[in-house]
Design a protein that fits this description.
It is a single chain. It is built from 10 helices and 5 strands, in the order αβααβαβααββαααα. It is α/β, with parallel strands linked by helices. The longest helix is centred in the middle third of the chain and has 18 residues. It binds uracil and iron/sulfur cluster.
Length: about 210
């Protein structure tokens, strides 16, 4: 299957999934959206009111701020993949429960494997916990760590920054460093000569 086919398959499955009780209050599942070839993938928490109405991620106030942040690094939302830890809205926007996150993680895992992004940005504590279970966001936000062969950068959730204005600049500063991280995560186009592992072309010179 191509990455696009995997994303479509996941979207079709979550639309009818009943693997946790969040399906009971779902109007539309929100599988996430963006190109299968995205370098950059954002993982939020779960759909809110507007997302549940529209079946699309980050279309409310937090989404507008996320779009602003993307614009600040010269990106449009259509260029990145935007998903969530749970695909169905927790009633009243309550926190997703551990068993709901566990039930839904298979979909996120397939999306990550298909997209194979260079950089994953976790938005908020639930997606951060996937990679850094015991970390505190106040201590590790904006710091890139190598996890399973890619860079993962935890950031505050845009909604948190909307509720707590002092976080706005923090999130903006963390975002400003993303272009450099994406470049660092990029496969080397012109590999630097590596003394320990000369490539085939170099070997042929000796
Ligand atoms: N907040 C999230 O975490 N995800 C969305 O899709 C929208 C708001
Ligand atoms: Fe299925 Fe995930 Fe929706 Fe739960 S939140 S019903 S696991 S798609």
């Amino acid at each position: 299957m191509t990455p696009e086919e995997v994303l479509n398959e996941v979207a079709n499955e979550v639309a009818v999934c009943e693997d946790c009780k969040l399906h009971l209050s779902r109007k539309n599942a929100v599988p996430g959206e963006g190109p299968a070839g995205s370098d950059l993938m954002f993982i939020g928490e779960g759909p809110g009111f507007h997302e549940n109405e529209q079946g699309r991620p980050f279309v409310g106030a937090a989404g507008r701020f996320l779009e602003e942040l993307l614009a600040s690094i010269g990106k449009k939302r259509e260029e990145v993949f935007i998903g969530n830890v749970v695909k169905c809205r927790p009633p009243g926007n309550r926190d997703p429960e551990p068993e709901e996150i566990a039930a839904c993680s298979k979909y996120l895992e397939r999306q990550i494997a298909a997209i194979n992004p260079k950089v994953i940005v976790t938005l908020g504590r639930f997606s951060m916990a996937r990679y850094f279970p015991n970390a505190r966001i106040s201590q590790i936000h904006g710091q890139a760590r190598q996890v399973e062969g890619r860079l993962v950068v935890p950031m505050y959730h845009p909604a948190a920054a909307l509720h707590q204005p002092s976080l706005r600049q923090v999130v903006q500063d963390d975002f400003a460093r993303l272009p450099e991280l994406i470049a660092r995560g990029a496969p080397k186009q012109a590999p630097m000569p590596d003394k320990s592992e000369p490539d085939a072309e170099q070997l042929s010179l000796f």
